[in-house]
Amino acid sequence: MIRAPRAVALCATSLALTLAGCTLRPPPSPPSPRDQSAAAPTTQGGAAVVYQHPFPPDRLIVHPLTRIVADPQTGDRRIEAHFELLDRYGHTVKSLGTAVLELRVSDQGIAGAAGGPRQLARWTKPMRTPDDNAAPFDRVTRTYRLTLADLPPNLPPIENLSLIVRFTDERGSLLTAERRFAR
Predict the structure, then answer these.
(1) CB-hemisphere CA count at 13 Å for 11?
(2) What is the mean pLDDT of the chain?
(3) Residue 77 has pLDDT above 90, yes or no
(4) 36-40, 84-88, 119-123 — which is least confidently predicted?
(5) What is the end-to-end Cα distance of the chain in Å, rounded?
(6) Nearest to 105 by CA among 59, 58, 172, 152
(7) What three-state secondary structure class fits 108?
């Protein structure tokens, strides 16, 4: 019959294509952020391949959830700071880096005071490893949430206070944002 040679030819072709497909190598995947050697360049065919974050942070926002609260038991005040990193498309992203937060007071409007804004307190939060970065990230609000204690005892009126957040990412780019507190 004529059909048998066609079936054999079809099976042989299928087998050859399957075996040929197995010898192809998929392109290398980018290094995992959890891999400690992720920053180190890898090689592919002798050429260096460096992974770059496709959506690096482009903008920083101090979120409106940021507020000054008092501990119900001790009465000590602290800041619940929320900040968000956004890529160039306006989407929330996470990034390794260091956050520096400053509480400032504007002496304008305070009777008897003169001068411009001055720093009352400063906090530094290293977030250079994936674990250190993931810990303050709030999945519900999609913001980094930091509780800042050790505020000066005699704070001026809240409407004269602002929080400045500076974030330096792993590329060395500095992003800055400020939010004034309101009653």
Answers:
(1) 6
(2) 82
(3) yes
(4) 36-40
(5) 92
(6) 152
(7) coil
Judged against a pLDDT cut of 60, whether residue 136 lies above it is answered with yes
User: Alpha carbon 21 to chain centroid distance?
Assistant: 40
Structure tokens at 104: 């400032």
Separation in Å, CA 165 to CA 13, 46, 74, 100, 182: 63, 42, 27, 6, 17
Say how many C-beta atoms besides its own lie within 10 A of residue 93's C-beta. 19
Q: How far apart are CA 51 and CA 63, in angstroms?
A: 30
Q: E-strand spans in 63-130?
A: 67-70, 77-86, 92-93, 97-105, 118-127
What pLDDT, on the 0 to 100 scale, is given for residue 38? 43
Question: 105, 103, 145, 101: which is closest to 123 by C-alpha?
Answer: 101
Q: Which residue has the tokens 């003169």?
A: 114
